[in-house]
């Protein structure tokens, strides 16, 4: 975790706050959606993600610790100040209103299964009681369903390692494909 230790110096509160971030985010919304709510498959929503989570992910893309051919070149040129401003901006946006964006729950049995796996897996202990995220742990409530599936597979396969004590690798490793499908179904509809 040497890279993460060195990067930690870059993380902090934005000095000029979310206003600067809004101008810098103009290039991001083409993919991540107006207001940070993604309408694009495999592109995550950023609205209302914890500031720290956003900053860490940008630092990970910038250093190449998180591999992604789309995001690495975008994060590469960002300064530490850009990272803070962008983090503050997207954290300040409202999450998608579930009553507006909610897809019909065509598989209530998957919702129930996902809820139970989330309880057994103690996802809330890090992601918060409403799964709205906490510090470096992402908001997972209301995230795009197929993106949650992708993220969990990436952790399980070791393609994505994340920060700290590799928390998600341990969490994802024992999950089977059906568990992942159910978790994503449940969490994306919160
Ligand atoms: C060309 C499309 C595109 C643009 C433009 C773009 N992104 Fe992304 N972004 C992606 C994709 C695709 C991913 C998912 C990567 C993966 O699957 O690991 C992503 C992931 C992220 C993540 C990780 C979120 C999470 O929940 O894991 C952050 C943070 C992020 N982008 C911030 C930004 C910011 C800030 C900008 C503008 C400076 C930006 N992106 C511009 C496509 C884009
Ligand atoms: C020990 C703490 C911890 C536990 C328990 C935990 N998580 Fe996480 N989770 C994290 C952290 C920290 C991150 C950010 C990791 C990174 O930097 O990639 C994360 C990231 C994620 C992501 C990626 C989100 C995104 O937008 O990129 C998903 C999905 C996720 N967790 C789902 C779950 C589920 C489902 C469970 C329960 C089965 C769970 N987590 C349990 C700490 C935890």
TrEMBL record:
Heme c 2 binds at residues 123, 126-127, 168. Residues 12-94, 109-190 form the Cytochrome c domain. Heme c 1 binds at residues 28, 31-32, 71. One of its GO terms (cellular component) is periplasmic space. It is found in: Periplasm. Keywords: Electron transport, Heme, Iron, Metal-binding, Periplasm, Transport. Gene3D superfamilies: Cytochrome c-like domain. It comes from the Bacteria. Binds 2 heme c groups covalently per subunit. PROSITE patterns: CYTC (PS51007). Its main location: periplasm. One of its GO terms (molecular function) is heme binding. PANTHER family: CBB3-TYPE CYTOCHROME C OXIDASE SUBUNIT FIXP (PTHR33751), CYTOCHROME C4 (PTHR33751:SF9). This is Cytochrome C.
């Amino acid at each position: 975790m040497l890279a993460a230790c060195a990067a930690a110096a870059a993380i902090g509160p934005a000095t000029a706050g979310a206003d600067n971030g809004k101008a810098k985010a103009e290039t991001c919304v083409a993919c991540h959606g107006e207001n940070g709510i993604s309408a694009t498959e495999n592109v995550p929503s950023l609205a209302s993600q914890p500031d720290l989570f956003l900053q860490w992910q940008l630092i990970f893309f910038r250093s190449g610790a998180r591999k992604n051919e789309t995001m690495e070149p975008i994060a590469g040129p960002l300064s530490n100040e850009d990272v803070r401003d962008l983090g503050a901006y997207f954290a300040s946006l409202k999450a998608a209103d579930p009553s507006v964006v909610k897809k019909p729950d065509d598989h209530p049995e998957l919702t129930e299964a996902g809820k139970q796996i989330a309880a057994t897996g103690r996802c809330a202990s890090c992601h918060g009681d409403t799964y709205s995220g906490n510090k470096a742990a992402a908001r997972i409530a209301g995230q795009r369903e197929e993106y949650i599936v992708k993220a969990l597979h990436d952790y399980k396969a070791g393609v994505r390692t994340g920060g700290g004590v590799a928390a998600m690798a341990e969490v994802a490793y024992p999950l089977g494909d059906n568990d992942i499908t159910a978790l994503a179904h449940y969490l994306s509809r919160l």
